[in-house]
Specification:
Blueprint (H helix, E strand, L loop, with lengths): L1 H6 L3 E5 H16 L5 E6 L6 H9 L3 E4 L2 H9 L7 E3 L6 H9 L4 E4 L2 H14 L3 E8 L21 E2 H12 L4 E7 L10 H21 L5 E3 L17 H18 L6 E4 L3 H4 L3 E13 L3 E6 L8 H5 L6 E2 L8 E7 L8 E9 L6 E5 L19 E6 L2 E6 L4 H5 L5
Parallel strand pairs: 1-17, 2-3, 2-10, 3-4, 4-5, 5-6, 6-7, 6-8, 8-9, 9-10, 12-14
Antiparallel strand pairs: 1-11, 11-12, 11-16, 13-16, 14-15, 17-18
Length: about 400
């Protein structure tokens, strides 16, 4: 309530202890199972300068997918050797920026990029290390929009084309291929999907060693571990995730007589998701007798499009009525001009009145990173809390910000 009063709503609140704790947990769980592991945070979940500084201090790397994310890393002097540049359509300018700033790895997604990267690295007079992104053809049974490792995905080289890509990469004088990457999807509960995909890629690596003398030095099975958004959807633990990845990689490497490669893990949601809480203020209500009661709040799909885009569900509490037990079933509606702007459908909460503060946990990932100015709305403020103190890490947009790029 105090934060909402001080900073206004909608407001996103991140807990620094949770963020740092998740970073440490990933490091510890993998270190005890597979010591040669680098954990890199997937910035697409959400990044800004304050969070980049935290990940830098915690010894993580960064998985970036745009020049903008790379620029945020550069702005806090993030160690570029721990930055991996992903993306299915990197521009020449982005590749020039990445190579010029000395990124550690470029993860190549297609044949055009292989050629473009070779040209840019030659012009810069450097040899750039990197990985090939493969599509292993494994369905992790998550939402279709966040499934990325199946054959029909827009990402990566299908295994059937990967040999041609490897041969071309190994013939380059300016791109040094050191390994493979895949990412099968996001919000994954079925850990056996990782085991299946790892086995496919390692068999390919062994075949390429035999045919081309390829030295398999580095391997990334991506990230994508699910988190629990509701009490009835428990997610695997980081320890369980680490066990499946590490044991499969060690066992299969031994079976195929491969030297175990360096392991690179790319969590995003499972680090930042549960560290964030969204706060909203209740406004108007609309009751349709016998059908539904809508309670509108001062945010919605412009700051959190996930329910509208994926049909995802959240829990919520009423921050100023935590002890009340007199519940009613309501639908939490956003303020934007779309019928699909519903944050939570049919949830039991204490009776709501204008001015009440609704808190939605699990809002740290893919809310702010996909936020928009729909209906010319202002993107919300963000605060970081630690030891009972809060500091603003992004101010609320102003109308001047909204119009600052317009030309008349």
């Amino acid at each position: 309530m105090a934060l909402a009063a001080e900073f206004g709503t909608p407001l996103y609140v991140f807990d620094e202890a949770t963020l740092r704790g998740k970073c440490a947990e990933y490091g510890e769980e993998f270190a005890r199972r597979y010591p040669d592991t680098l954990v890199i945070y997937a910035c697409k979940a959400f990044i800004n300068r304050a969070l980049a500084q935290i990940f830098k201090e915690e010894g993580l790397g960064l998985d970036v997918v745009s020049g903008g994310e790379l620029a945020i890393a550069k702005s806090v002097d993030f160690p570029m050797e721990r930055v991996y540049f992903h993306g299915n359509n990197k521009s020449r300018r982005e590749l020039e920026q990445a190579i010029g700033w000395g990124v550690g790895r470029i993860v190549v997604d297609n044949f055009l990029e292989l050629s473009l990267l070779d040209e840019v690295a030659k012009e810069a007079g450097v040899s750039q290390e990197g990985l090939l992104r493969l599509s292993p053809g494994v369905d992790p049974h998550t939402h279709a929009y966040i499934t990325t490792g199946v054959i029909e995905s827009k990402f990566g080289f299908p295994i059937a084309e990967a040999e041609e890509a490897l041969a071309k990469a190994m013939s380059s004088s300016y791109f040094e291929l050191i390994g493979f990457h895949f990412h099968i999807g996001s919000q994954i509960f079925e850990l056996e999907s990782y085991r299946e995909a790892i086995e496919i890629v390692l068999r390919f690596a062994a075949e390429m060693r035999s045919k081309y003398g390829f030295k398999f030095e580095e391997f990334s099975p991506g990230g994508g571990l699910a988190i629990s958004y509701t009490q009835d959807s428990p997610a695997p633990t980081i320890a369980e995730f680490a066990e499946v990845i590490s044991s499969t990689l060690l066992e299969k490497s031994k079976d195929l007589s491969l030297e175990p490669p360096r392991l690179v893990i790319e969590p995003g949601r499972s680090i930042v998701g549960q560290a964030g809480v969204a706060l909203y203020t209740v406004g108007a209500t609309k009751e349709i007798p016998g059908l539904r009661k809508y309670v509108s709040v001062d945010g919605g799909m412009a700051d959190n499009i996930r329910p509208a885009l994926y049909g995802d569900r959240y829990e919520a509490v009423v921050a100023n009525k935590m002890e009340e037990e007199d519940l009613e079933r309501v639908t939490i509606a956003g303020k934007f001009c779309q019928s699909g702007d519903i944050l939570i459908k049919d949830i039991d909460l204490p009776k709501l009145a204008p001015g009440d503060i609704i808190a939605i946990p699990g809002s740290g990932a893919y809310c702010l990173s996909m936020a928009s100015n729909y209906n010319a709305s202002l993107k919300p403020a963000i605060v970081l809390v630690k030891d009972g103190e809060a500091r603003l890490i992004r101010r609320r947009e102003s109308y001047e910000d909204l119009m600052s790029h317009d030309l008349v």
